[in-house]
Amino acid sequence: MLRYKVRELLAEKSFVENRRITFKELCDVSGISRQTLTRMVNQRGYITGTDTLDKLCAYFNCGVGDVLEFVQNDRIENILLPAK
Asked: What Pfam families does the record point to (predicted)?
């Protein structure tokens, strides 16, 4: 499963720039809709287009690998279902 690291990137950019950056600002500057960003952050398995990834990479000045993380399905299950 792919996991988007938008919150982490936003927190890092906020720290580096020493200011609070909101989702609204990210939407306004990048041109990505709030609905799309919310789904990327909150909805597991959400699929977005390459244009959205391109906009995120341009905004954060990073590569696709910084925006996305591959998480093994068995790792997800181990996190969600504690061992007996």
From this structure: HTH_26
Task: Provide the residue ranges of all domains of the chain, joining segments of one domain with +.
Answer: 2-80
Q: What is the per-residue pLDDT for 71?
A: 87
Quote the CA–CA distance of 81 and 84 in Å, as a whole number. Answer: 9
Q: And the tokens for 78? A: 């181990």
Rg (CA), the chain: 14
Cα distance between residue 11 and residue 62, in whole Å: 14
Q: What superfamily would CATH give domain 2-80?
A: lambda repressor-like DNA-binding domains (1.10.260.40)
- Structure tokens belonging to residue 3: 């996991």
> Coil, strand or helix: which one is 80?
helix
Q: Which two tokens stand for residue 21?
A: 């950056």
pLDDT single digits (tens) 27-84: 999 999 999 999 999 998 899 999 999 999 999 999 999 999 988 876 555 555 555 5
